[in-house]
Fold this sequence. Notes:
This protein has a two-stranded antiparallel ribbon. Helix content is 69%, strand content 3%. By secondary structure, the chain is mainly α. The protein has 2 domains: 3-87, 3 helical TM bundles of succinate and fumarate reductases (Up-down Bundle); 94-131, no CATH class.
Amino acid sequence: MSTETATREYRWVMPRGWWTRRANYFWYIVREFTSLPLAVWLLWFLVEVQRAQSGPKGYVPHSSTAFVIFSVICLGFALYHSITFLSLAGVILHFKVLDRPIPSRLVVLSQFGAWAAISAVIAFVLIYFAR
């Protein structure tokens, strides 16, 4: 048997557009895609941090319409990514208290509560030090 024949026998190719055939596949791919614009935004943020090293006199932050629109889109992607991840916490995390399992709904609610609390602390710190 030639190498070409052996390769042809064992090769399985997923059809194009496989992820568009079912809604849950589609939303899974969308969720995975959200990391790309977030990575670009974070790289842009690192460039801004580098530019801010020259001090307040030499730094002019981006205030262009394109940057604001891109940031809002990235915020939407980040929220979608976070919500879908935290919604799975009840399936992934299993805790027992006094040999009784904690309901998955309570685990999910605690994750969202922690997310809200941490976000509030970060917002307070950013607003407080921005003055």
